[in-house]
Write a structure and sequence with these properties.
38% of the residues lie in helices and 17% in strands. By secondary structure, it is α/β, with parallel strands linked by helices. The chain has 2 domains: 38 residues, no CATH class; 369 residues, no CATH class. Strands 1, 2, 3, 4, 5, 6, 7, 8, 9, 10, 11 and 14 form a 12-stranded mixed β-sheet that branches. It has a two-stranded antiparallel ribbon with strand order 12-13. Strand 10, helix 14 and strand 11 form a beta-alpha-beta unit. Helix 1 packs across helix 2, helix 3 crosses helix 16 and helix 9 runs parallel beside helix 11. It is globular and about 60 Å long.
Length: 413
């Protein structure tokens, strides 16, 4: 209804400007709801086949583990609840742990730091033969203090002077716009340490071994991290700025692992870890940044006969990038971007998914429109996005909604 109301307000404005103020609200809402009943939203996929999470849930030796990293804006632990419930339904995992576990993240070198929260949930099939461990990183506590400088602008002293829709847009901007700027400053290192700590806990422990309701740091220099990395399966899910955090976080880990945690680094070299990027912003967030230390050398690092193959970080990093063209903050990954701007040691392959997660309306012949906010935040509740993450494309498990509603162009090397 929020989407319909937003679109209605815009329609009402345009009709008033064109001398059609007599058009009733009921008629406008009926028109919008009729259009919404016929879903013609685009879903175009271009890339290699990928399996999604489903094939790895029955891992007999280890576990399937997924880490979600949010993007811009203030978030609180539990932000992924709706996504997790929809994912569990798609994967037929109706059993959940009675209580989730929480770890307050901190630095190994400064335990006074608050680096956010890691929440862990356990999802199981009815017969307990299939399992998914879901890790939710909430890092926005790191930037919240700095964003207080804009709090006055959300107060009644200023907010009441704006039109209602403009006030909603301004508050959304005040909440989200500062984070990419802050990330380029001193807080960047803390955010990357937060990601690194999350990955460490993700590999270090299984459900029964995980601590709960503690503030504690994790170390990769532990036999269990290397052992689990060899037998467990991993995936990342991100939104907007979270995609940049994962890429930078993995590159940061690569810079010190070989020297300090050789066993874990060796285990990581044989892993394929996909990243499902919702509202992908990698091209925009590359602006003004220096190039990675290692680039344009994918063949040397990622081909078994390459001269630097033993120096790779991962065997492969598939990036599945979801972008709604009506999302003002989202971008597809263009040809040549990976080679120039991403670390060659990650061995990245890209699948671009051009998908409308916001409904598109015909504004009474004035043109088509979609709510840009819905287009930015709607990925993690879209059934096609959920199905693609759960079951992929180009395999026998691909979901019916994907086969019916998405067009796939397979690419080859």
């Amino acid at each position: 209804m929020k989407q319909i109301l937003s679109s209605f307000l815009l329609l009402l404005t345009t009709t008033q400007l064109s001398g059609c103020a007599s058009l009733g609200k009921g008629m406008a809402e009926a028109f919008l709801e009729k259009q919404q009943s016929v879903d013609i939203r685009v879903c175009d996929i271009r890339g290699k086949p990928f399996d999604g999470l489903a094939p790895f849930l029955g891992n007999k030796q280890g576990k399937m583990k997924v880490l979600m990293v949010h993007g811009v804006g203030n978030h609180w632990p539990g932000y992924s609840t709706q996504f997790v419930e929809k994912l569990a339904e798609e994967l037929d995992l109706p059993v959940m742990s009675a209580q989730y576990k929480n770890i307050s993240l901190t630095s190994r070198f400064d335990s006074s730091k608050n680096l956010g929260n890691l929440r862990i949930n356990r999802l199981l099939s009815k017969d307990k033969s299939r399992e998914l461990m879901f890790y939710e990183l909430t890092w926005s506590a790191i930037t919240a203090k700095q964003k207080e400088v804009l709090a006055y602008d959300n107060s009644g002293e200023y907010a009441f002077r704006r039109a209602e829709v403009n006030d909603l847009m301004k508050k959304f901007s005040n909440d989200t716009s500062p984070d990419p700027i802050i990330y380029l400053g001193e807080s960047r290192e803390d955010i990357l340490v937060s990601f690194g700590q999350s990955l460490c806990w993700m590999t270090k422990s299984n459900w029964t071994d995980l601590p709960d309701d503690v503030k504690q740091a994790c170390s990769f220099n532990d036999d269990t991290t290397a052992t689990n990395m060899r037998i467990d399966q991993y995936a990342f899910i991100s939104h907007s700025l979270g995609s940049r955090i994962i890429i930078d976080g993995m590159q940061r880990i690569a810079s010190f692992l070989d020297k300090r945690d050789a066993d874990f680094a060796e285990a990581l070299k044989n892993k394929e870890i996909p990243i499902y990027m919702m509202s992908n912003q990698l091209p925009m967030l590359q602006l003004g940044r220096k190039l990675p230390d290692v680039s344009n050398q994918k063949a040397a690092y990622c081909q078994p006969n390459g001269e630097k193959y033993n120096q790779r970080m991962l065997s492969k990093t598939p990036i599945i990038a979801f972008s709604d063209p009506n999302d003002l903050l989202s971008y597809a990954i263009p040809h040549g971007f990976v080679e120039k701007y991403l670390d060659s040691r990650l061995c990245v392959d890209v699948t671009n998914i051009n998908i409308n997660v916001a409904t598109i309306f015909d504004a009474f012949g004035l043109g088509k429109l979609a709510n840009p906010i819905d287009a930015h935040v709607g990925y993690d509740t879209d059934n096609r996005v959920i199905a693609l993450i759960a079951k992929g494309i180009g395999n026998q498990n691909t979901a019916k909604i994907v086969n019916d509603r998405c067009r796939w162009v397979e690419t080859v090397d």
